[in-house]
Amino acid sequence: MARVELQNVGLNYHTEAGEVVALKDVNLSVKDQEFVAIVGQSGCGKSTLLSLVSGLLTPSQGQVTIDGNQVQGTSKRIGYMLQQDYLFEWRSILDNALLGLEIAKERTPEAVDEVKEMLKAYGLAGFEHYYPSQLSGGMRQRVALIRTLAMKPDVLLLDEPFSALDYQNRLSVGEEVVKILRERKKTVIMVTHDIPEAVSMANRVVVMTPRPGTIRSIHSIKMCDEGLSPLQTREVPQFREYFGAIWKELNTDA
Amino acid sequence: MPNTTYSKEHQNYLRRRRLHVLLVRGAQLFLLLGFFVLWEVAASRGWINAFIFSQPTRIWAAMLRLAREGELWRHLGWTVWETVLGFSIGTVAGILIAILLWWSTFISKVMDPYIVVLNSVPKVALGPIFVVWLGTNITAVVAMAISVSIIVTIMMMHTGFKEVDSNQIKLVRTFGGTKGQVLRKVVIPASVPTMIAALKVNVGLSLVGTIVGEFLASKAGLGYLIIYGGQVFNMSLVMGSVLLLLAVSVVLYYGVTFLEEKVSRGRT
Fold it and tell me: What is the pTM of this model?
């Protein structure tokens, strides 16, 4: 059974100026432990799609299911990572990492120990009582990841999670994050406008059309299936072929 | 950092910086002392009328006499107490109302024109109304102080709440956070700098409210001393009270600054 399933999903935005069809007839099925990347021009409804899966928005048509159960409101099973780390400047690193657990009222001593272990495992030992402004961009992004993983979600939604980092960091943090997500056997849906990033990380790349957003094509990337890391994938000759094909689709009208 | 490793050029730079700071402080002190010395000399030489302008030594003597009688502390105490009371109640109530406006867009939209109008009314004009309603006592004075500070607090805090990064709120919502949790975990902590700014404005405003209140409705306080001194043409008393008022406002302002340093640790 598919872990995440979207059936004929559509979403309309209402403003006083009128009704905007943001998404239309989206059908997508994501398997357990699969990494699906969604690419498309800005404004094509990529982020809206994630909001629908996370339960922050309810679809106007169709339905979203996780393990066969319809999504109704936010759930602990789904983790969401935003464009930036959005660490709270007034909280220490440890308190930032514990934010989700605190909101779910699950900040138990065991949970705190677990988060401390995770900080240690991901190179943040000794930084528990620092404040976000004292950390580098890459470290901050790892704290944001730990904040999400602490909730033990099965499905992770990444909304351009590396776009705020400079190129060097984007590659290295991306490499790390993918390694961690594979180790922890997470199902991932990532939205990005960076085609190389999508091809290097995903099992499948979904190309979306401009508004109203709908799925144009789906590309299976064999390097990820073979277990290559994002940086290794970028070295493979076929990488350019995938890139070229997706690039062309994004730059020609349907 | 050991300064022995500094180059000669850097040591020169540091010396110039220190000299600059010293010069500024020196000039500030000179202005202050110069003002009082000139005042004193001008009054004793008869350049200005000491009866109307008073003079520093007379002010000092008048204040000293008042202090010995114990009256000075009573008046000072009243003013500080009324200001702190008005300031605290005005700030807390203002913040609570701002939270209500943040919570309900409907209420905030309905209240918007009323708040704008109330903000532009000179609150001092309400003084006589408070006196009639509440009597010539501390309640009227504190009401005056509250009325001067509360509307500004509401407006500043409500704007601050609305300017909180919507993505930080989204983050809390992705964790299933309720509106109350959004308020407690993001909106209020993110607005602490705005709160401090509001406190700084309110310290001054509450003092204005208190003094005006004391002008109208009290038997004690620095405002009372100023009015009384003016009526009996005791300018030393008036000037001394004004100088004391200056000192009170400085102390209160630095109190808030001290608070700011306490809470802003860890923030950028």
Answer: 0.84
